[in-house]
Each structure stands twice: as structure tokens, then as C-alpha cells.
Design goal:
The chain has 287 residues and is an alpha+beta fold. Helix content is 27%, strand content 19%.
């Protein structure tokens, strides 16, 4: 009798999961079919501080996005409980975009005292860790001027200001990942919100002001039919690195960027200019 009850419960759970997937036909990973990608409850059961992004969300994507998700796990593993969130340009010791010594092909990009992080630093960390995996022999191909552009500090250890070189553009106010990946280096392409898939980068502009740099994990429609965005970044709500589920009602506009041409890491012009005055995209959710 007990075995029969257990079997019945399992069947009901499987049916419920299948029903939720049926309600969200875009749940299966398609490579940018222009339809919103909705997550199911099972995808977000692990909470904020987990290191299973590659396992959970990687099965829904192809290409370089998989490496970005693996990069998230590498960053998260350096601070399993988040590591703390802090922004303070004039603090002593100074703020740290990332909570550990970040290296590209063995060459240091960041070496600061604090263990805390903030949003653009965390997404940059996932990006750099992805490059380390995509190009295991990249050290021999990366020129000194491009390495210098990617550094998060000046040669004397001081803060690299917003807008200066690659990291300065990524860290700039507004749509930093678009500035760095699309305009400056050509390593990425803009995509519409409806095309977003796990592992894409997105800058969010809030209705109450300010912004956020995150890695997109998916859209989520809850039991009350309310729509949310699910992402990974560093923020107060997760005390540093972690996943968040945020209502779309809080968002004014966004800018999504996908890593598509990472090989341009070895050929982009470090003197390329960019413009900050670009329009954002509204999220117009459809069934």
C-alpha cells in the first residue's frame, strides 16, 4: 500500500512538472527563436547561493553562453555565502569590484584587499572566467595593450575610472556591457528581451533610478501570473554574489548583450571610441 501511495505521488509530481512546461512552450532551449524563455519552479529551487548554474541553466543553451554560466559558478565558489556587497569609491581600503584576485590567462586584472563585490565586477568576473575556458592557450595571443585595456586597476594599483578602456566601459553608468562588448571590442551583439537566454548579459535601469549589471538566467511567471526576471549578480539582497528573482514592475528598461565573437579579444582596437547615449529596450511580455 505504501509503495502504491509513493508511486502515485511521484506520478503527480511528474505530471505537475510536465503541465508547467506545457504552459511555457518556450522552456525548451532554442537558440534565439525570438520567444520569451520561461523558467519553471524547479529551476530556482536552490536559492541564491548555489554553484549549479552550469548544470541547471546550461542545458537550455548552446555556444558561449554555457561558458558564461560556468564562469558564474567559478565566481560564486570564491564566496559560497555571497561574500558581501560594497560600493564606496572613497573608502579606505578602496572598494573592490570583485572579491578575489581575478586573472586572465594567468595575468592579474584585479588585486585589491576587500573581499566584497558589486554588480558590474561580478558580471565581469563571469565574463573573464569564461574567456579563460574558451581560450586555454590565450596567453600567447593576447597583446600587452589589450591586456592593459582589460585590467580593472591602473598600473599603480589605483582605481580605473568609468569609461577608461575595456573595464572602464563595462563599469560605466548605463548600459556598460553594451559599451564594452558591442561598441568597443565587437565581441558581442545586442539582442531583444524576447530573445534572451541564460548566460546573456543585461543592464537594467530601475524605475526608481540607478541601474544593475547582471547575467540573465530566465523569465519567471508565478502562480499569480506575475512576471519576473531571474538573474545572477552581486547585490545587497544576496549579500554579494547570488541569484535574484525581481518583478518586472520595478524595471524601466534594459539592454541585453550576447557574447558572440570572443575571438575579437585578440584583435580589437584599444583606441575605439563609444557613445553612452543609446536607447534602452522595454520589456513587453507576451504569452
Amino acid at each position: 500500500m505504501k509503495k502504491a501511495v509513493i508511486c502515485l505521488i511521484i506520478l503527480l509530481l511528474v505530471a505537475a512538472c510536465a503541465n508547467e512546461r506545457t504552459k511555457n512552450p518556450s522552456h525548451k532551449a532554442e537558440t534565439d527563436n525570438g520567444k520569451f524563455f520561461f523558467l519553471i519552479k524547479e529551476d530556482i529551487k536552490n536559492g541564491a547561493h548555489h554553484t549549479s548554474h552550469s548544470e541547471i541553466f546550461g542545458k537550455y543553451v548552446e555556444g558561449y553562453n554555457k561558458f558564461i554560466l560556468e564562469g558564474i559558478d567559478k565566481v560564486q565558489k570564491t564566496a559560497p555565502e555571497g561574500g558581501g556587497y560594497f560600493i564606496g569609491i572613497k573608502a579606505d581600503p578602496p572598494e573592490s569590484p570583485l572579491g578575489y584576485k581575478l586573472k586572465l590567462f594567468g595575468r592579474t586584472l584585479l588585486d585589491l584587499e576587500r573581499k566584497t563585490s558589486y554588480c558590474s565586477g561580478s558580471t565581469y568576473g563571469a565574463f573573464i572566467e569564461a574567456l579563460n575556458m574558451i581560450f586555454p592557450g590565450g596567453a600567447e595571443r593576447l597583446s600587452d595593450d589589450r591586456y592593459e585595456s582589460l585590467r580593472m586597476q591602473e598600473p599603480d594599483g589605483g582605481r580605473r575610472n568609468d569609461g577608461v578602456k575595456f573595464w572602464g566601459k563595462w563599469n560605466d553608468d548605463g548600459f556598460g556591457t553594451q559599451f564594452a562588448l558591442v561598441q568597443y571590442s565587437g565581441m558581442g551583439e545586442e539582442i531583444k528581451p524576447s530573445s534572451a537566454r541564460p548566460g546573456d548579459f543585461v543592464n537594467i535601469s530601475w524605475k526608481n533610478g540607478g541601474g544593475h549589471s547582471v547575467v540573465f538566467l530566465g523569465w519567471r511567471r508565478d502562480e499569480e501570473n506575475q512576471d519576473h526576471i531571474v538573474y545572477w549578480s552581486s547585490q545587497k539582497g544576496t549579500d554579494g554574489y547570488g541569484d535574484q528573482v525581481v518583478s518586472l514592475e520595478r524595471i524601466k528598461e534594459v539592454k541585453f548583450v550576447r557574447l558572440t565573437n570572443p575571438e575579437k579579444l585578440f584583435s580589437f582596437d584599444v583606441n575605439t571610441d563609444y557613445t553612452r547615449d543609446i536607447p534602452g529596450d522595454e520589456i513587453i511580455m507576451t504569452d
